[in-house]
Amino acid sequence: MATILTKKTFPSSRWLLFAMLASLHFALWLEVDSIWSRPLLLTHFGLFLLWQPLWRGEHELRLSGAVFIGGISAVVLLWLNWWLLAFWMGGLFALVGGRVFSFRIRWLRFLYLAVMAYLLAALLLWVVPHLFGLPHLFGPQSVHEAASNMMAVILLLLLAGMIFVPVEKEQLEAGQTVDFFYSLLLFLLLTQLVLGSLSFMTLGHMDYLEALLRTLFVMALMLLALGWLWNPRFGFIGLQPLFSRYLLNIGTPFEGWLRQLAETAQHEQSPENFLAQATADLVTLPWLSGVAWRAEEDSGRLGESSPHSIEIEEQGLRLTLFSRQDIAPSVVLHIHLLTELLGYFYQAKRREQRLREVTRLQAVYETGARLTHDLKNMLQSLLALTSIAQRREEEVFPLLRRQLPVLVQRIEMTLSKLKVPQLENESSLLPLAVWWESLRQRHQYAAIEWVCEGVVTDEKIPATLFDCVADNLIDNAGTKRLQQPDIFIRVTLCMQPFFLSVCDGGNAIPAPLARQLLQTVVTSESGLGVGLYQAARWAGQFGYKLVLRENVAGAVCFELLQNR
Q1: Are 560 and 466 within 8 A, CB to CB?
Q2: Planar angle of CA 521, 523, 526, nearest 5 degrees
Q3: Whole-prediction pTM value?
Q4: What are the two backbone dihedrals, phi and then psi, of residue 136, each rounded to the nearest 5 degrees?
Q5: What are the structural domains of the chain?
Q6: Tens digits of per-residue pLDDT, 467-504?
Q7: Residues with Cβ within 8 Å of residue 304, at least 6 apart in sequence
Q8: pLDDT tens-digit readout, 13-60
């Protein structure tokens, strides 16, 4: 099969452009009846195929493409006329104009603007008069001679000047995008200009130049009115929001897939299931025949493979899309956008999964830390009851009958938490009066001063939380008493405002340690810090807060109060 030469065969695409326009210029100058016009136009068409930015020149020319090129060549050879040339030059003008707006380099844009000026002048001042059968009715005879001189000198000099435009080869070969809407708009405007001139000539019985100027004036007024309607300043919203909303509509299949993607992201929690469902929805697009994906250890394939494919990798997700035909550059941009959205959603699902795993581990770790201190407190209570039972006194047995059920209940609660670790704010609720009396009986032999301010109500409280906080604070105060035997320990329950405080008369906690005591785990020889940190975090989950209210020598007080 024949292949189209690549642009790399030539030193620069600017030379292709110049050669293409030069062959067209000489074919126009010789007019359609000349024997040399058809070979020149065939040469022009071949150079256009090498220069054109619509298809990649390095691809192999297939049978359908060869038939299309042969058909165009046959039309040029058999039905060459001024109408065909006018249509071709209008399309070429629109194609070049559609590329101008994609360049950011000044000289490159200037080059294509010069090409547009050449095509427009040749079309309006040479092709259209011949199209209307007015080579000698162009106006005054001097004007026709001026048009001939323009083709022979001015436009030829304009073509020669394009060679000296300082544009680098790499920059010329980089721009390969054509804006379809700009090209279509330019073609329609040019068609309106030609047909409007014909209408003025026919209905107004005027010469071509006057008709052309009147058409340009009417078009300028129309564009001025549309520009004002685009963004008016008198309260009317204008055409810009409506037209922009229309242009942003990239097609019903794309929009449907985006809507399905959002719905799938809401319902599917597993990244693997989300990816499988999203790709299943993607393969339903009418221009796709299949899709294959790979993401870390997950991979899959749907639909059928085809020779036309594109591979995209975004956010750790590699997609291979198979289409039934060549993928246009504009569609490639949409594909990159959709793949990027799919990759973001997929990574978000993976982060959600990792967050759920971290949350489960956090529940296990925090529950284990709390239960460690619960077990320590229960073992201390059990040790105290055992030491009391060894006295063999008559008043000991009623005390054991009261305390053992409470201890058994706490052990059952601890075992239930070991079976199902959780972070939810759930706990056994007890009346405040019952819990207060149970706490006093549990520590009645610990030389603690119990103070109750106000009437204790039957308001429900999270007993496990209060037990954890009170036992940790009392145990820490008892540890301090071993080093300072004469200090007091006071437990206060206040109803208005409600708080539970544990105070001791020992030395103050060092300031550096006090600032971090309830905020993080601290290092201490007495073990102070871990239990209080866990108790403070647990209290926050139940709507309470544990604070160090007072920290001076002779008065170190912790308070558990409601977080308002």
Answers
A1: yes
A2: 115
A3: 0.47
A4: -115, 0
A5: 7-245 (no CATH), 250-354 (no CATH), 427-564 (3.30.565.10)
A6: 888 888 888 888 888 888 888 999 999 988 899 999 99
A7: 289, 290, 322
A8: 778 888 889 899 888 888 888 888 888 888 888 888 888 766 655 556
